[in-house]
Design a protein that fits this description.
The protein is mainly β and 207 residues long. It contains no helices and 23 strands.
Length: 207
């Protein structure tokens, strides 16, 4: 039998045996590797790996686990990180304070200590930022008609094409097109002006 196909070596506690392409074995004090086509397994220190070529792979240790079912499934876990996906539709990740989930191509969610984001494509999106502060800001969209935003010093809402609302420290504004408008302006501490308009019945402007 030609030497590259068959061989056996032993040096101390290290042993190697091969009968290629069907069998391979290697062992020493803290590790062992074996391959019986198409199955593979190995142990090294505290890590154990297994596989069924070319579709399955698994690795386990005290600090992590990893599994493949190619090309459909992947899973990884460690004390600080987790990843999963089922192709081509679902993916999930947790890395410290960050979490991400996705259901392709229609849904995505991401959360951290500071912010969160959610998208339902193509209709809806929501974002919240600075969650650890006393005054977080947020935005929401319902495409193509609605938008809202809230911050420490202002808020606004819009329903296209008929309604809009806005408020900050200097001004409040609300209208419902073409029927209603209400505006209040605070130019100075004791100086306030108002405008109210209801089509076609009522019009009040005061300062």
């Amino acid at each position: 039998i030609p030497w590259p196909i068959w061989g056996f070596t032993q040096k101390g506690e290290e042993k190697n045996l091969r009968v290629l392409p069907f069998y391979f074995s290697a062992s020493q004090q803290n590790s062992e590797k074996k391959f019986v086509f198409p199955y593979y397994w190995a142990t090294e220190d505290n890590t154990s790996t297994k596989g069924l070529l070319p579709i399955w792979y698994s690795s386990q240790s005290p600090n992590h686990s990893e599994n493949w079912l190619f090309p459909f499934y992947y899973r990884y876990r460690s004390p600080i990180k987790e990843i999963s996906f089922i192709t081509p539709f679902f993916a999930w990740e947790k890395n410290g304070q960050r979490n991400q989930k996705a259901l392709f191509p229609i849904w995505y969610q991401k959360t951290t200590e500071q912010s969160s984001l959610q998208i339902l494509f193509p209709l809806y999106a929501s974002h919240v930022g600075d969650k650890k502060n006393d005054h977080p800001h947020s935005r929401k969209y319902i495409f193509p008609t609605y938008f809202s935003e809230t911050k420490k010093d202002r808020r606004q809402r819009m329903l296209l094409p008929i309604a809009y609302s806005f408020a900050n420290e200097q001004r409040d504004l609300d209208f419902l097109f073409p029927l209603y408008l209400n505006s209040t302006t605070r130019e100075q501490e004791n100086e306030v002006s108002h405008l109210r308009f209801i089509t076609p019945l009522y019009n009040d402007g005061s300062a």
